[in-house]
Amino acid sequence: MMIFPAVDILGGQCVQLVQGRRETATAYGTPLENARKWLDAGADALHVINLDGAFGSAGANAGMIRELIRETGVFVELGGGIRSREDARAWLEIGVGRVILGTIAIREPEVVRDLSLEYGPGHVMAGVDARDGQVVIEGWQEEAGDYLSWAERFELLGAGSLLFTNVTVEGLCRGIETGPVGRLLERTRLPVVVAGGVSSAADVRALRDLGVSGAVLGSALYSGKITLEEALEAAR
């Protein structure tokens, strides 16, 4: 199972939010210095979210993300503010390993199909952000249907993987909920990366034993609740 340290970018800084709320941001320095820190600690992939993009400025941080990709040379999965095929193509063309399609995948599901056909499924990850069994979009403000049904649809459309974010526990550092993850894995054959609540080596081991392909470490990693070395060991 892969471990993806989160590098969330807001206003040019690497930050962590609680429950996706901008006003809760805690800054931790530049994205590149944090990326290097996690790579030096053993990571071989990064989960990068362009929060300025998610909050409405699609082109924000493009230069910074380009630099991060160029300077690190590792696999990067990127989300945040991807609102069109053109946005996704632009990121893939500069070297992003795979784009995470969130709200656009719900609003325009055919984009998942088109990009998968154009670039290959491995470069296209569909985001399944869920609260109480419902997919939530538009900054987690709007419900958009059953998360399991959407996961099945994304698989049929040709997505190469899914990012499952349990919004209920995201950013709280209180642990994961295995039930929603287990139900998702029963309904799809796609690789699933899990975000939200991963706060301990026990959480990582639980996800590994469920059979997920990866886990995103965010707030718990930055606050020191879990170290990257602990997570990598638990993932083996």
Automatic annotation (TrEMBL):
CDD domains given in the database record: HisA
Pathway(s) of this molecule: Amino-acid biosynthesis; L-histidine biosynthesis; L-histidine from 5-phospho-alpha-D-ribose 1-diphosphate: step 4/9
Keyword annotations of the record: Amino-acid biosynthesis, Cytoplasm, Histidine biosynthesis, Isomerase
One function term, GO molecular function aspect: 1-(5-phosphoribosyl)-5-[(5-phosphoribosylamino)methylideneamino]imidazole-4-carboxamide isomerase activity
Record carries keyword Cell inner membrane: no
Compartments, as annotated in UniProt: Cytoplasm
Gene3D superfamilies membership: Aldolase class I (3.20.20.70)
InterPro entries reported in the protein's UniProt record: Aldolase_TIM, His_biosynth, HisA/PriA, HisA_bact_arch, Isoase_HisA-like, RibuloseP-bd_barrel
Entry EC no(s): 5.3.1.16
A GO CC term attached to the entry: cytoplasm
Pfam family of the protein (one): His_biosynth
Active site (UniProt): D8 (proton acceptor), D129 (proton donor)
Top-level taxon: Archaea
Main location: cytoplasm
Family membership noted in the UniProt record: Belongs to the HisA/HisF family.
Protein name per the record: 1-(5-phosphoribosyl)-5-[(5-phosphoribosylamino)methylideneamino] imidazole-4-carboxamide isomerase
Organism: Methanofollis liminatans DSM 4140
